[in-house]
Amino acid sequence: MKEINKNTSEKKGHFIGMVPLLIFLVLYMLTGLTSGSFENMPLMVGILIASGIALMMNNKDNPTTFEERVTIFCKGGGDHTLMLMVIIFILAGAFYGVANGMKAVDSMTNLGLSILPSNLILPGLFIIGCILSFSMGTSMGTVAALAPIAIDIANKTGTNLPLVCGIVVGGAMFGDNLSFISDTTIAATRTQEVAMKDKFKANILMVLPALVINLVALAMQPIDNVSLTGVHNYNLVNIIPYLLVIVLSLIGVQVLNVMIAGIFAGMIIGLIHGDFDLIGFMSIAHEGMKSMEDMAIIAILVGGLVALMNYLGGIDWLLQKLTKSTKSARGGELSIAALVSLMDIATTNNTISIIAAGPLARDISDKFGISRSRTASLLDIFSAAFNGLLPYAGQLLVMGGMAGVSPVSIMPYNWYSILMIIIGLISIAIGFPKGKISDHKKLTNIVKQTDIIEGDL
Question: Which among 83, 184, 249, 336 would be 20 to 30 A from 4, CA to CA?
Answer without folding.
Answer: 336
